[in-house]
TrEMBL record:
Name listed for the protein in its UniProt record: CDP-diacylglycerol--serine O-phosphatidyltransferase
Keywords: Lipid biosynthesis, Lipid metabolism, Membrane, Phospholipid biosynthesis, Phospholipid metabolism, Transferase, Transmembrane, Transmembrane helix
Domain of life: Bacteria
Any one GO molecular-function label of the UniProt entry: CDP-diacylglycerol-serine O-phosphatidyltransferase activity
GO BP annotations, alphabetical order: phospholipid biosynthetic process
Cellular component aspect of the GO annotation: endomembrane system; membrane
PANTHER family membership: CDP-DIACYLGLYCEROL--GLYCEROL-3-PHOSPHATE 3-PHOSPHATIDYLTRANSFERASE-RELATED, CDP-DIACYLGLYCEROL--SERINE O-PHOSPHATIDYLTRANSFERASE
Amino acid sequence: MKVDNMPVEETEKDIPKDEVDSDTTESKSTQKQPRRGVYLLPNLFTTAALFSGFYSIIAAMDGNFTQAAVAIFISMVLDGLDGRVARLTRTQSAFGAEYDSLADMVSFGIAPALVAFTWALAPLGKVGWIAAFIYAVGAALRLARFNTMIGSQDKRYFTGLPSPSAAAIVAGVIWAAESAGVAGEQIASIMALLVPVTGLLMVSNVKYRSFKDLNLKGRVPFVVLLIAVLVLVLIALEPALVLAGVFCAYGLWGLLGIVFKQLR
């Protein structure tokens, strides 16, 4: 009995090997390609913080030192929000971390140094610009060391004065002096000491509380709530003086901690 030759279904054996390999390689390369683009929301906050730092420099060049100091504080608020927004929305990325460091260098390194130099240190000549440079290079080294120590240090403490707090000390003193009618030339010698010391504190090994372990969801005594309300009222009444005092006290607290440790 004669059986007609039935068509044989096409299998991988019938496909040339070169075509199989090329298709497989192409699919693997497509899967390995990283996703392009950046996350918009957290980087918008970082860009806004960078803009505030840049505006601070422009305002100081125009002689608007109060606006320059306030812009640095606004940059601090925005810098604190971008990381929290990234964690809440799960949009952390290596690009965002690097971009944030570059923005911090402008807002908390270059801007405070130039504002302080324009406001008070310029008449001192070489002493003035050297003091401003010490602060700027201290901020750069601080940010570089912070990036290399991520994940290897105790989250409860910062090693060295954080750059936003250092910027707040310089900007707070300028803002408070301007509000009190004190010109920069009158306290130029004080600023020539304050600015470089603040820069050196950023690269020191002094421990500062980060308050990252603060439990805001837990119960607290009623007195704590009253103190928080009182602080907010004081900030509303005298924002320049209160903010300058708070951050100057924070800067001294690390040094006093060393003294108390030695006394114990």
